[in-house]
Structure formats: structure tokens, C-alpha cells
Amino acid sequence: MTDTAAFGVQSMIAPLQRVLLKHARSAYRDPSTVAGGWRPLGYAGPPAIEEAVRQYDAFVELISREVAAIEFLDVDACTSLDSIYAYDPVIVTEGGAILCRMGKPLRGSEPEITGAYLEAAGIPTLGRIEPPGTLEAGDVVWLDRRTVAVGRGYRTNDEGISQLRQLLAPHIDELIVVPLPHWNGPAACLHLMSLISLVDTDLAVTYSRALPVFMREWLLGHGYSLLDVEDAEHRTLACNVLALAPRRCMMVAGNPVTRRLLEQAGATVIEYDGSEISLKGTGGPTCLTRPLLRA
């Protein structure tokens, strides 16, 4: 039994023991919001609510086999469809939660809503990103317990990174800034986690075409084998892989080439149908889950 008072996530691969989710039933509870809210968020189309709920139930069933403590953020508050992607609004460290300030204005209410839930659940607030800083957790990748990489792009700016560095100072030895490419422009979502998913201490799934050279060289220089995602599968979120434990991971179904690479590297792969809950909003399994404890 996991101690639900325990928290701390300064790893992308340590066994996942406590996780916060936002069910599609909650994120998509208002049909009028679904009908009118998907275009401003850049979705590929409006989520089909009943199918999204079915897919999310199946996703929860898979997660529940792997994680001891699952919690749900089910609050009647004003949020967008993107609130289903519970990872982005907060960073949970060994010292407490850091509330982000979203670079996507339509998600602006999520950090405080999530932070209030975490406080009530026994996770203190370590700090928050203040204006003019912006920072989204999708740009934050823990390379090890004392080393964190942060993507500098359209969602996370220099001031946000500076504030994060100060808040993390007692808990890390190094923060590496990774400049992100323009990609498809400010309206598109390109987080650092769109380009790299760690699967073990020496294995990463990457989209090297858009990964900065120095970050790729850093990984290779630190002993990582890189499994490169092809263009077609990057579009179907093959680079977004959730490590449940070292070399045990989840990914969106429909990426057979990347799955085969993972299995050839000795990883166990669990797939889920994400056509409504992942592909339309470009948020894979790492985005759907907010780890609260990895140990």
C-alpha cells in the first residue's frame, strides 16, 4: 500500500506509485464547451464525448494495474478541454508542488485549481511562477534526481526558467536550458517532452530531427541509447511514452515501428486507444498523468 501522504517526483523512470488524473468525464463534462472550445485550443476535431469517456475508462483500468494510488481531480471549476492533460499545470518535487504559469492562456486557471487539490491532499506548495514568467511542466524533463532539463520555447520563457531555477535550487545540482525550435509556430504545442521520453537510465525515445544537437549529444555522452521516432509516428505521438518503471511503459496504440524498437531494447509496452483523448488534443500518456510519487 502506497503512503498517500508521500510525494516527490524527480525522475521520469522510477516506479510510479501515486498519480493524479483528470477523467474525460470531468474535462469534457460540458457539451457546449466541447462543441465550441476545441478550435481555439488547436484540436484536430471535437472529442466525441461518449467514446472519450470509454477510452479514458480503459486507460484508467490499465494504469490501475500498475500504480497503487490513483487520484482524480474532479472539481466543478472553469477549465478548458486541455485540463484532461493533468501533467502540465504543476511540477511536483521532493520539496512540494510548483504551480506553473501556463504559456497557453486558455489553460490559465489550471495551476491554482490543481495546487489547491494538492494542498488538500497533503502536498505543500513550494512556490509558483509569477508574471511575466511562463512555464509549463511539459517542458520539464528530469534527467536524474539532481539534474533537470527545461525547454525554452513558446510555452516556457526565460523568466519562467529563472524563477524555476531559484525554486529548485535546494533540490538540484544542475538545470539545463534546451532551446526549442519554432516548429509550427506559437499556436502549436511543442514541449520538450514532445521530443524526448526517458524509458530507463540508459534508454530514451527521441525525435532527433527537432531535438537540439547539444541535447542529443548530452544524452549520447551520458550513455543513452536513442530510439528515433520516424516522422509519421511522431505525428501520432510515438515520442510521448510514459515510463511506469524502468523499461516498462505506456504509449498510444498505432505506432508499430516505435513499439518494435522499444521491445527490441527489452522494454515492455502497454498500449491504449487514444484516438479521442490523445490524438485530437496532441497529448499522450505522459500528458494525461500527473505523477505525485515516484520511488
Task: Give a brief description.
The protein has 295 residues and is an alpha/beta fold. Helices cover 27% and strands 24% of the residues. The protein has a single domain, classed as 5-stranded Propeller (L-arginine/glycine Amidinotransferase, Chain A).
Descriptive account of the structure:
- The chain is α/β, with parallel strands linked by helices.
- It has one domain (16-294): L-arginine/glycine Amidinotransferase, Chain A.
- The protein is 27% helix and 24% strand.
- It is built from ten helices and 15 strands.
- It has helices at residues 24-27, 31-37, 49-64, 110-120, 158-168, 213-221, 231-235, 256-264, 275-279, 285-288; strands spanning 16-21, 69-72, 90-93, 96-99, 125-128, 140-144, 147-152, 174-179, 196-200, 203-206, 225-228, 242-245, 248-252, 268-272, 289-294.
- The chain has a three-stranded mixed β-sheet. It has a three-stranded mixed β-sheet with strand order 3-4-5, with helices on both faces.
- The longest helix is centred in the N-terminal third of the chain and has 16 residues, at 49-64.
- The radius of gyration is 17 Å and the shape is globular.
- The two termini are 13 Å apart.
- The mean pLDDT is 95.
